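wait is this the right file?? whatever heres the structure
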């Protein structure tokens, strides 16, 4: 383990990371967001979704540093008396969960389709890439809205409420796979004619095994970059859907839901209900995008 750590600390990737102050700050911000979300039950001052602990008498309290603030609510409270800081920490868990799961789903679908299209070629390649091209003509948010709308129309409201989180993950993931598929296809077209792949064919290794054990490891780099950059986009898409009221169920509010709720009170003076969740969303997405930009440059041999 110590040897692996020593090699990692001596790698070009770690050197590039240390040499970029922006990347270091982005990593720290992203780590704070992730830890705050994962450890919300431990670190949050209150449980904003425990109805037994809520009191309407605590509603609309401003942040603690204002003259009318209460130290029990560092970032103020909303219209239900929920602590905004605690709501942000719990809401970030849902946003991160949807973002990570939808990107993983899109990665798996895109990598499989890209490998098949690039390695097999011919009619399969043409068919799969035309499907990807058609989907790319539509904005991802419209595809996610279409999927969510179809599911809502097909299922009873109580069933949709139970599986709403999975529907959002599927809707966002199915709208993002073409980027992975096209990238993997391009890399696979290059790899399939190299000597090691031809040698594997000669000795009788099956096509499925060649794709999984020979080609796939050599196309992982670009996939990691797209996944990192796509995570920020997935979080924004989920927040947009939740802001529009068609995202995660109201019983599992994300940062987008908190922003939508606070938007109703923005012009009545309770600005903190929407501003702080918005700032948390900006910090999370911006830090992830900056890390993705660094990873793209660090893994590009032309920029070394």
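ok assuming it is, sequence goes like this
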């Amino acid at each position: 383990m110590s040897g692996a750590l020593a090699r990692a600390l001596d790698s070009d990737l770690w050197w590039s990371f240390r040499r970029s102050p922006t990347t270091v700050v982005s990593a720290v911000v992203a780590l704070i967001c992730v830890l705050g979300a994962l450890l919300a039950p431990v670190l949050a001052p209150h449980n904003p979704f425990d109805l037994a602990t809520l009191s309407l008498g605590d509603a609309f309290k401003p942040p603690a540093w204002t003259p009318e603030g209460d130290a029990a609510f560092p970032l103020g409270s909303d219209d239900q008396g929920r602590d905004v800081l605690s709501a942000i920490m719990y809401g970030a868990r849902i946003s991160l969960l949807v973002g990570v799961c939808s990107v993983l789903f899109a990665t798996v679908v895109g990598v499989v389709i890209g490998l098949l299209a690039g390695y097999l070629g011919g009619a399969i390649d043409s068919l799969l890439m035309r499907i990807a091209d058609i989907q790319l003509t539509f904005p991802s948010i419209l595809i996610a809205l279409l999927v969510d709308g179809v599911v809502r129309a097909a299922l009873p409201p109580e069933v949709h409420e139970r599986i709403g989180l999975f529907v959002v993950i599927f809707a966002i993931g199915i709208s993002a796979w073409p980027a992975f598929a096209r990238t993997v296809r391009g890399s696979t077209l290059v790899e399939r004619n190299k000597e090691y792949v031809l040698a594997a064919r000669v000795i009788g290794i099956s096509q499925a095994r060649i794709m999984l054990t020979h080609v796939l490891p050599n196309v992982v780099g670009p996939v990691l970059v797209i996944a990192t950059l796509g995570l920020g986009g997935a979080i924004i898409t989920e927040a947009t859907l939740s802001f529009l009221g068609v995202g995660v169920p109201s019983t599992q509010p994300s940062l987008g839901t908190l922003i939508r709720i606070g938007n109703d009170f923005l012009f009545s003076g309770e600005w903190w209900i929407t501003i702080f969740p918005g700032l948390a969303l900006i910090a999370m997405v911006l830090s992830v995008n900056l890390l993705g930009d660094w990873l793209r440059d660090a893994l590009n041999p032309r920029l070394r």
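The radius of gyration is 23 Å. so i think its the right one actually
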